[in-house]
Each structure stands twice: as C-alpha cells, then as structure tokens.
Amino acid sequence: MTERAIEAELQQAGLPDKRQVAASFSRAAASYDAVAELQRRVGTQLLKRLPPVLAPQRWVDLGSGTGYFTRLLSERFSAGEGLAVDIAEGMLRHARPQAGARHFIAGDAEALPLQSACVDLLFSSLAVQWCGDLARVLGEAARVLRPGGTLAFCSLCVGTLQELRDSWQAVDGFVHVNRFRHFEDYQRLCAASELQVLSLQREAQVLHFPDLRSLTRSLKDIGAHNLNPGRPDGLTGRARIAALLAAYERHRDADGLPATYQVVYGVLRKPR
C-alpha cells in the first residue's frame, strides 16, 4: 500500500477537520499552559533526542502553541534565527508578547509558508497528529530543510487514551476519543519519504487523575477534547455518564485514574 493510500484511509476514518483544530486550540490559548503537563514532558524528551552537534542558523518551532518550546529553542540556539509557526492564530497572539522567535507565522504543516531550503531544524512537538496527510508534512519538511537539516517531531499514535476509549465503547460505541494513526503508519510513511530516518520510536506516557472530570477538563483546557467527525451531538445523558464513570473506575490503580498516551518520537535528516 502506498503512503498516499494509507493517508486516504486515515482521512476516510475521520481525522479531525483542521479548521476545528485551529479554532479549538485558539480558544484554549489562555488555559493551555496550566494543564500542559504531558506536552511539557514529551517536548522535553524530544529536545533531548536532538543530535548533540546541532547549530542551526534558522530553526522553526512547528505547531508552536503558546511558545513554551519556542523559548527553550531560543535559549539553546541563541545564535540562530527562530520562527514560530502554528495553525491556531489565537496561540500565536498569546505567544508573541513572550518573544522567543523573530517571526510568528500562521501556517499549516501540510503547506508551509516558507521558501525551499531555508531551514536547518524543524522541531514539532505534539502537532502533526492533527494533520490528515503526514506524507505531505514530510514532503514539506524535505522541501524547506537545507541539505543536512533535521526534522524532529513527536506525535501520538493508536493506543492513546485507550482507557477512555474502552470505557466509552462499553457504554455506547460512539466516537468520543480522537483517532490517531498506527505506529506502523509512521514507520511506513517516514521510510517512504525523502528524509533519512535517524530514529523512530514509540513510548508510553501515563498521566493519573483523581477522577474522570479532571481528565476531561484537562483535555478541554488544552483544546484536545474530541474533535472527530461522527462524534455524538447534544448533551450526554446522566445514565450514560454514570455508566462511563463505572466503566473507567475499573482502570483505577494506586495512583488514580490512568490516561495512557502512546507517543511517537522521530528524528529525520535531509541527505546532503
């Protein structure tokens, strides 16, 4: 199966509309940092995976959000020029006063508003899972990177929020949890790209919450609540919520209610 065929299947499966993604994250700009524990943890791991000898003249924080990692990249690569790119203009407005980058640009990872061969590092933490066409994202990365340039990304794959998915499945079978690609799709699409795969790994990260309301509130506050086509409309009845609470309680452990995220870490390089 070709990478385009894989992406077509994913689009038919109902990955979120990026206009809804942009609007949702724009609305969450003010509340995002207060509840972004996973995002900080995962992005910090991605920073550690960057090649040790890296001195980009120009770098891009792709899916920059509130600018948390834009500022860290600016500190680490202070000699270079930084660009913050995000599809959510509300996030860019929130990030701009805190600096960290020379330019803040509204843009889509599938159609980057950048010239070809102008960037040495593309850093993207928990953004490309919202892109329907990963092959195009990788193609755009290959286009804008200079020879020898690096793409470092982390994303989410199938198995993310599996506890919540299984609990809803026991209640009504509707789509209540965002869909993500299989890890094997990341492997195939990265291997088929114009970039050399230096590393591509999957690791589980588990957060714990005292109750289900805390989990769902955190998803809403970061703008990552259910954005799938086919999600049920209208209010959820009390009986269904009670059934969901009972189903999720079966997953409780000594630390609380677990929420597992299957994180994909990828570091790729454009051949010289």
CATH class: Alpha Beta
Q: How many structural domains does the protein architecture include?
A: 1
Strand order of the largest sheet: 3-2-1-4-5-7-6
Q: How many H/I helical runs?
A: 11
Shape: globular
- The run of helices and strands is HHHHEHEHEEHEHHEHHE
CATH superfamily: Vaccinia Virus protein VP39
Count of beta strands? 7
Provide the CATH architecture: 3-Layer(aba) Sandwich
Main β-sheet description: 7 strands, mixed
Rg (CA only): 19 Å
Walk me through this protein's architecture.
With 272 residues, the chain is α/β, with parallel strands linked by helices. The chain has one domain: Rossmann fold. The protein contains eleven helices and seven strands. It has helices at residues 3-13, 18-27, 29-32, 37-48, 68-76, 89-95, 134-144, 162-171, 183-191, 212-221, 238-249, and strands at residues 58-62, 81-86, 103-106, 119-125, 145-156, 196-209, 257-269. It has a seven-stranded mixed sheet, with helices on both faces. Helix 2 (18-27) runs parallel beside helix 6 and helix 8 (162-171) crosses helix 11 (238-249). The radius of gyration is 19 Å and the shape is globular.
SSE diagram, text form:
Elements (H helix, E strand, L loop, with lengths): L2 H11 L4 H10 L1 H4 L4 H12 L9 E5 L5 H9 L4 E6 L2 H7 L7 E4 L12 E7 L8 H11 E12 L5 H10 L11 H9 L4 E14 L2 H10 L16 H12 L7 E13 L3
Parallel strand pairs: 1-2, 1-4, 2-3, 4-5
Antiparallel strand pairs: 5-7, 6-7
Helix pairs in contact: 2-6, 8-11
